[in-house]
Amino acid sequence: KSLSLNLLQLIELKNYFLNINKQQIINRANKTIELEATAIQQLKDSIDDSFIESVKLICDCQGRTVVTGMGKSAIIAQKIVATFNSTGTPSIFMHAADAIHGDIGMIQPSDSVICISKSGETPEVKVLVPLIRNLGNTILAFTSNEKSYLAKRADYSIYIPVAQEADPNNLAPTASAVAQMAMGDAFATALLSLRGFTTEDFAQYHP
Length: 207
Prior knowledge:
With 207 residues, this protein is α/β, with parallel strands linked by helices. The chain contains 8 helices and 5 strands. The chain has helices at 2-42, 49-60, 71-86, 96-99, 123-135, 149-153, 175-195, 199-205; strands spanning 65-69, 91-95, 112-117, 138-143, 156-159. A 5-stranded parallel sheet has the order 2-1-3-4-5, sandwiched between helices. Strand 3, helix 5 (123-135) and strand 4 (138-143) form a beta-alpha-beta unit. The longest helix is centred in the N-terminal third of the chain and has 41 residues, at 2-42. The protein is elongated, with a radius of gyration of 22 Å. The N and C termini lie far apart (73 Å).
């Protein structure tokens, strides 16, 4: 009888901790979605004159749009390049670390450069920006730090506000990565609209 009671108690204890874990998972997942949704909503305040001028600049660009970044920002840069290319904006990706080891040679005189960095203080970006400046290319910044090295030295700076990352330690690029991608999509669709890009044009790139 005592053994049966202990087994029942163990089962109840196990179920108790399982329920706690379930709720913890649910709470964290919901919190992540809330924080990332908030980050995207806040982007509306960044659709300002700087955004408009940046879109016009890329629309009128006679060369390609080179998109660069480090870490998660580099991954977002690749996605933005893919979206640009499929919607009529010729683009290439340049990893910021590889750029300062020779890949900057891919930048042509008529190209424009979008540099993505949450902090705007990434060491590789701080080395890269003056090199691009020396080439004479226009630099557009996507950054969450309006007072950063990148923001101050770019020709145009698009602010991507992120109050808090979604991970519990507020460290892993989560909300900031989602916001960067959403801004890239906003940029791409604004270009698409400005160019009058049609479903027929889209079909040419998606045979």
